[in-house]
Each structure stands twice: as C-alpha cells, then as structure tokens.
Model the fold of this input.
Amino acid sequence: MRFKSIVYVLLLNCLMVLCSSNSWAQNSDNPDDFDVKGFHLDLRIQVMTPTALNDFAEELSQLGMNTIIMEYEATYPFKNHATIANELSYTREEIKNFVEHCESLGIQVIPLQQSLGHVEYILRNPRYSHLKEDRKDISQLCPLEITEAKGLFLEMFSDMAQMHNSDYIHIGGDETRLLGVCEECSKKVAEVGTSKLFVDYMKTIAQLVIDLGKKPVMWADMILKHPEAAEEMPKETIFVDWNYGWKINHFGDIPALQNLGFSFWGSPALRSHPDNWYLTDWPIHFKNQKEFIPYARKSDYEGMVMTSWSTSGVYGFTWDVGYDVIDMVQLRNTYPLSGFRILLASYAHSLKTKEPLEPKTFVTEYAKSRFGLTSAEIEKLLNFLFYKPEQIVNGKPVWSSSISEMKEEYGKIRDELKEVDPEKHNEEFEHFKLMADLRMHYLDFKEVEARYNSKEFSVDQSSELLKDLDHILADAEKLNDRFCKLNKGFLYDAEIEEQNELRIQPVKVLYNRLAKVR
Done:
C-alpha cells in the first residue's frame, strides 16, 4: 500500500508539472493570470439573434473565455418595466436559455445595467422623463433624484439577479458628462464638489447590488477624473479601466485607487471610435492588445474584458412639443461583430501568453492556419489590415491631398484583397472584402459630395453629379445584398434592412437635393 501511495504521489507531482508547463492549462494560482477573461456584448444596436448568441458563446468558450458582460439596454424584458423594451427585445425564455447555455460552457453572464449616464433608451419614455438631468440631452439621470432612482434600479437589478447567476452586476457609470448641469446639482457641486455628487449617487446604487448578494462593477473613467470622494465607495466595487489605445492612467491615478483597496479589471476595445461602416482602425486595435494587456497583467488587474461597441452611444432625436421624444436614432455605426473574429482570436492569444502580442506575426500565422493562404496572399491581407485608417473631416482627407488620391491608393489595396482565394473559412474572409468595398463605395460618394460643396459647383453640373450618384446607388444595392447574406441569422432581418437603409441615407439625401436644384 505504501509503495502504491508513493507512486501515486509521484504521478500526481508529474501531472502538476506538466500542466504548469502548458499554455493551455488553467493556471488560476498564477498571480500574473486574470481571474476574469471576458467579452462585453453591446446590444444597443446590431442585436444578435438567440442562435448567434449561443454560437458566439461556444466560440468564446473554445478560445478560453469564462465571462460575458451583456449590455442589454432595451433588449432586456423587464417584468415591471416593460415600457423600456424595444422591438428587438429578447423574451425571458430566450435570456434564461442563453444564460443556461453559457453556464454549461463554463461562462458566467454578467448583466450590465447603466444607472446614471447612457440611459436615453429609458428617459425617452414619458414614464421616466422627469428623472432626466437636462431637458434636451436625455443621456443622464439627475443624481439628486436618488429616492426614485433607488426604487427603479432595485427592481431592475432584482430582475437581472433572478435571471443571472453570476457574482456580479455591472452598474455602468461612464461618461456622465452632465454632472452639475441642473440648478440643484450645480448648487451641490459648488458646495461639495463634482466627486461628492457622483459618489453619493453611485455608492447608493452600488449598495443595492451588494444587498442582493452581488458585487458591483462599474466603469472607472468618472471616479478617476473626480477621485476626491472615491474612498466612500463600497470596497466591494470593482472598477473597469477602459483603455482603447491611449496612454496609461489616461483618466486618472489608478494606483491611488488600488491603494484604497479597490480591485480593477482592464478593458481594451475590438471596435471603438473612430470605427464606422467604412473605416476600421485595425492597427490601433492590435496595438491596444499588444500594449494594454501586458500592462494590466503587471499592474495586478484581476480581470480583462474586451469591449466591442456597435455605435458611438450618441443619438439624434425627433422631438415633439414639450421635449417629448418621437424617435431616436444612433449616430455612427460600426461594421457588425461578425466581421472581427481575427481580433477576437488575437485577444484570446494575448490572454494565454505573457509575451506581448506581435500583430503582424499573429496575423501571418492566423492567415495560414485559418484561411490556408499563401505567402503572397498573406501579404495582401497584411496590407489591408495595417493600412493607415485615414478619415475625411469637413469634406477633406486628414493626410492625403485629395479624395481622388485616397481612392487611387486604397483601390490598390482593395483590388489585391479581392484576388485572395482562401482554402477554408471563406465566409469569414468575405467580411474583409465587403469592408474594403464599403470603403471604396464611401470614397466614391465623398468625392461627389466634395464636388457639390466646392466653390466651383453650379446648377448646370447637377445632372452630371446625379449620374454619378445613380452608379453609387446601384453599387449600394449590390453591397446591401452581400451584407444581408453575410449577416443573415447573426442579426435580425429587420435590423439588417435598417442598417442598410441608414448606411445609404446620406447618398439619398444628396440625390434629392440635386434633383430639386437641377
């Protein structure tokens, strides 16, 4: 028996050594590892179907993720606040099935419920409009309306706690730029400062979560900008440092809050400003992962959560008298999450290795294993992904001398990419080709728009510009069809149609203006 025990101990020790030497092994005892390896889903727009959610969770699990943060916004079916839900809201059964599916994969689902800023979708409804800080900028609640806010969010958090088994509830709290705008809030800021106004409200909201047996998670930007009263926040609060490619401590002194006993998670971005339908800043997203994840690991951050923003979070409104909202529409949309698996894979790779990501090396290996590309084809993909993401501002390129120059230069990149013929996962690669074609489509339109806005424009040129716009609109129909085929089942059909219509709206507006002056 003793001999068998000795053999068993030796075998166990060998197994432990083997596990510790393999990058795929779970290593929760490693102080440099992240306890939370997560992904944040933004469902403000581009709402994924239940099937797509389940498939995405499976992919995250295969890549080593253990957490999903769900920013439901108006897609969550609250029992006592059904007014909030929009036309793409999930059913409670769909939420229940998704959470159970994630748990079967070893993934916890953390609900995110904004509780101060970014609540247009709540305050647009007359039922809640009296809570807003400003009459026309309805992005934020008044932090002095604490009694009613407590009742509202207690019901919302309780509902979410019932539907989600995670240890956390994310309470938002970012970009609350209206602090001190209303008369009463302005008085409080003058008396005790912005930090006290913010903390008095957020600590009350955080306590609601704690009383439900959960830990509150909140974005860190505002507490870092206004840290004077930070010590009053409950120590259970976890702050998320979102850094999308800027300098460390961009918002404020993070070590100072860590010294107060607060825990931090880090959050890079897979999609963020200035990304839109026609431009993705691939280089900055790869660089963000390369620099920020190793920093967070060395700085004792306990978790890492990749964000993926479908829109800027800024909305345009149609108003009735009395500042009643008739309709609201998001401004600046990005290409759907379906087209960014390569950045998701590089993120997973960055979490598994202590060495900083080498973007071009990673893309080269990914292109070989995922698509089966040749060396020449890989070079074309690299040229596309690492091409400078130049913007057009006020009708003019930021760097190039003209839009025509931009078209000529980018056209070569686009044409080379179209020649690439993957051996496998062709549909994933088709997203790259569509993105490139959308970019060229956009440049074609901006060139016509620039001619319309030039000093040389006259009415007799309208017919010529209308002919160019006819070609652009015809091209848009083809692009819309491709967009639909690639995203069908990932997004709802109604939203695909809406996204296509929003994307072509500027072209139609200019077309109608030219038709009237012709």
